Protein 1
Amino acid sequence: MNIILLASQYGPGNNSTLKPLGCYQLASWLRQHGYSVKVIDHCSIIDTATLRSMISRFIDSSTVAIGVTSTFWGESERFVETDRRKNFTEPEWVLAIREALEQEYSNLEWLLGGPSASYGQQLKYDWHLFVGNAEDSLLSYMDTKFNKKEARHPFDICSSTMQYHETDFIQSHESLAMELGRGCQFKCKFCQYPHIGKKKGTYLRSIDCIRNDLLYNYEHFGTTRYSFLDDTVNEDYDKIVALANMAQKLPFELEWAGYNRIDLIWSRPETIQILKDSGLKSSQFGIESFNAKASRFVGKGWFGKYSRDFILELREKWGKEVSFFMTFIAGLDDESEQELFDTANWLIKNKFYSWSFSPLRIKRILPSSNTVFKSEFERNAASYGYRFPKPLNDNYWETDRWNANQAIEVADACNKKLDATRLRILAGFTMFELPNLGYKTSDILWKHLRNYDIQDVINRRNNFLQNYIDATMAYNIK
């Protein structure tokens, strides 16, 4: 293999079997340009000895590099509560596998992509860093390594195709990740994603490209479930109408989960049915706050006025066919601690068991930083009242009302209220965790986790992982 890419799951200690997108997207792009690529997944939940054997099977004389994604190293790894700059470093599995391989394969270069590539100067190992979208930069790197001089057309999301490969060993019932576009028309002030504020129609994939990829995956792997990873799936009315029309003509029943804006559903009530027709099974909603001033402050003014009533209405209209997960922010200056606890109590009182609170995350942007992941709050922190009083801590912020540690503590306290009910429900981007293991989607919707046979879930997950390992080790390399 010319290059091997290592993918990991959602954060330290997480046993998710859901596939991330980045490595597979890059692998597909490189294959389209003549390179052989092997993605090895689930690296954070496979023991080092087994993982080393899996990787070694695909290293040959043509292999020039091993690439690692940092996308799901975990936010907790990058957030500092203490009054010092943490010696941020690679997760244990990355350190272990690199140490295990470097002596035997000292000629290989190690590449790092994803958000944590911006922290390269703080890492233990030296890496060749890829910051931001890496299609063009990684292809250029490979062309240099293989001395290819031909002209390349830049990556264009609108006409792009992304196909999984036989060596991805996709299993029965497994859901896959897909982009319908790359970017968002909105500009929420806390959002750190780089492709926001886009002009309508400039960043969406062709519906024909999407259809072709869906059909390819269905015909080759039997795939019918997807996580659509767009910043906002329903931001464009024409987009979801086209998606629904396409879904109705597919030779299988499309099921998907993704992020949507509930205010856009409220403003176009017909989209309640259109989203169902498109195959939506579970939505993630960023509510952020029920406080009107706090909602306006982050750029979501509707939420503080109408969201409570419409959340109840939408649940009734979608019934048991579509679930949703809601997220809230702790630490917005116009909202008090008590208001956040009141929100958590309202959710429980109204029998919502799929939500979470997260602390507001703002970091000081140093002149030396090359990160593309920075929010409006971070670009202009002082004008929004955010201060960084601790010289050795870039992640500790404060305002007249809140500080970073207080936001963490309040978010944790609100989340513990849900934990105490023991009625949590899988929804949003976690919706397909159990269907990935063979459970029916219809059996998961709105079902409390405590009602599952936990040992059966563990056994299925272990079997899923072992099947992947066995298929990788048994593959006949040509």
Protein 2
Amino acid sequence: MIEATYIATRPEGSPEALGESIAREQSLEILPELIPAELGKRFLGHVLRTERIDEERWLIRIAYPPVLASAQIGQLLQLLYGNVSFYPRIRLVDLSLPESLTDQFAGPAAGIAGIRRRLDVHGRALLLSVLKPRGSSPEHLAGVAERFALGGGDVLKDDQNLVETTFEAFKARVSACAEAVDRAREVSGRQCLYLPHVAGSGADLHARLEWVAERGLPGVVMCPWILGMETAACAARSHGLLWLSHPSGAGSFTQSVDHGIAPALVFGQLPRLAGADLTIFPGTGGRITLGRSGAAIDSSIVTALTSPFHSIEPSLPCTGGGKAIAQLPAVVAALGVDCAIVVGGDLLKRGENMEIATRRAITTLKAHGKSSAAGMLR
């Protein structure tokens, strides 16, 4: 069974009745007297436990038949938090899935191990940077890309705001940046993964993805909380591309303390199931954060992305939100080496000195990778 745990804060009326209402609303969404016995047996969710946490909060755990997920990540999200998202002060905080269901999801195509093999980088955290802002010429962005790659940067992504109206403009910009990264590789001998941002819908989205794949680029950036999780998952899979899940739009689920969905699910378990090879989340210490007990939330997201999860490969946690180079040692100490650290503005502001700053950042990550390994051996 699919087991979902909700926290109800200051529930209106009986918590037990609320649990029954959620179970029915999310599974069959029909009046109790209209549920035929046979359909109820096969499809109706049922409450496993209702428990008081404190004076204001109740834990409600509900089991749903796996068939209701329809082997689709979008439908799984609908099942867990569709209509109940309109209920006041209900938060989805935990999820347990049977292996029979997770086996129906492809998960990441490469995951952490595959990304490290492509880069030939092991034993340290990865450095990820961003091409921005929108309105910059392809030549300017290509120059930024080349300096980052020459400095030994690992992963370079388009900003989510880099979106061209025409396909030709998209191809011109992405080609310029990809060629810059290729030139840097010929000089340095090191690989840098460049991931352009794709947006849109229907034939236009797939045309861009098909072109990216034909161009030989490894993957793309997509915003699943804007495009739709199912759309992003299917789009990347159908073109054999890796994809990075960008968190844009997800704050509406995570920022309230008593409503929405827990960050470990939004930035961890759900995109991992959907096949995101890399997942960005706004970690502690940047200009955008998840607030409250930040370090504990960061750790829960990393655990959701990297811990054993049936046959699903781990996704690479990418902690962002406005990190600075000076924060690299602290991030590695908190999250370990199996992560990427997003440093955008703090590298971009170096201008012509970005290559040097990138090289120093990589040196820092190498040093702290060794110290982390030594600490584990002790």
